[in-house]
User: Fold this.
Amino acid sequence: MKRKKQPEAIKRREFLQTSARYTAGAILMGLGTSELFGTTNSHRSGTSIETVTLNNGLEMPILGFGTLYLTEELGVRCVADAISLGYRLIDTAKVYNNEESVGGGIKQSGINREELFVTSKIWVDDYGYESGKKAFQTSLDKLGLDYLDLYLIHRPRGDVKGAWKAMEELYKEGRIKAIGVSNFEDHHLDELLSYATVKPAVNQIETHAFFVQEKARKSLEKYGIQHEAWSPLAQGRNGHFTNKTLAEIGKKYNRTNAQVSLRWHYQRGIVAIPRSSQKAHMQENLNIFDFELDENDMKTIAALDLNITQFPEWE
Assistant:
């Protein structure tokens, strides 16, 4: 590899970066660590977000935009805003009930489809061969797209085998550019790999400063499967946005807690998909490529690990 119940609203940051070097909205090239993870720079529409190369050769932006809870007109606006700022990886799922809004935001943005990397996920209720194919088409129709860049098994439950067979066929037909999984542990992956003819390209799992997932990261590296983080900022839980350790590191670089965390993900070679409904925060989350955490910073953040999910309601 180259490189449930909606939580209560949480105050996100105490300040935003407002210096002149950010006002252009351009993302600068990453420093140093990109070569370690095989990342390349993807130049699109006046911005540059590095990519990782998946195990089938497909390039995937290392930083994207999550859409959980962004529904209806809010979802349309947020997706259009994110794209206008330079996001190219857009993540949704059937169970988010917002694929139509995501599609609306894509259409409103006016961007060429080929410039985007769109992910959706099949939900447990639709697992199975025939039902899986039907669910994929339904998602595609709601999004208003002709293909998906990435389609994921959302959870390792039910008829995963039937759903995976359907996804493999859709992949081989060119209707999906890459297929993968979400919330899979090693034993789930081993079972899937026992019958799969196409290896998963991505495993999207909960990963943030309080659930570091280092064992999973190393394991996925061995499998040749890209690690992707959902809720990379823990949705503000456990005081993420006011955490003193992250804030102290941030002071060294004049960065927010969110930027420090997202840079930490990036330097670990992990794809991250933060979500925000505020355009200023979307921009802030993009501004992580022109500074670099040192080795001690990386270890200090890793030491925040509680080694337990911060989303027990989703277990």
